[in-house]
């Protein structure tokens, strides 16, 4: 996949640059194969995943990665793209990153 220098593409609708496709973004969320299991109880809620996003979660070993990376096909370079990954799998980290985030006030 061809790469581009940071900040050379147009910003998105919120005026932010380079929000997808540079690196898979680690999240604090535990991965569950189906969000549908929660049903209507999850509608409109921040999806912290099983165990409320706590540091350890019995029965779960994978965290959510989002937004694709330069290492993957261009079709993965979108904010809604998700995949599961085992945090201890260090050799694959060359195309992983993270973003600092803050809860929004209501």
From TrEMBL:
InterPro entries: CTDL_fold (IPR016187), Sulfatase_Mod_Factor_Kinase (IPR051043), SUMF_dom (IPR005532), SUMF_sf (IPR042095). Pfam families: FGE-sulfatase. Gene3D superfamilies: paralog of FGE (formylglycine-generating enzyme). GO terms for molecular function: formylglycine-generating oxidase activity. Residues 3-102 form the Sulfatase-modifying factor enzyme-like domain. This is Formylglycine-generating sulfatase enzyme domain protein.
């Amino acid at each position: 996949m061809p790469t581009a220098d940071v900040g050379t593409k147009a910003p998105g609708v919120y005026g932010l640059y380079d929000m997808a496709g540079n690196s898979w973004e680690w999240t604090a969320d535990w991965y569950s194969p189906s969000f549908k299991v929660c049903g209507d109880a999850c509608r409109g809620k921040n999806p912290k995943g099983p165990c409320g996003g706590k540091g350890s979660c019995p029965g779960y070993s994978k965290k959510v990665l989002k937004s694709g990376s330069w290492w993957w096909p261009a079709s993965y370079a979108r904010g809604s793209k998700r995949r599961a990954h085992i945090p201890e799998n260090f050799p694959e980290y060359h195309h992983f990153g993270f973003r600092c985030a803050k809860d929004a006030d209501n």
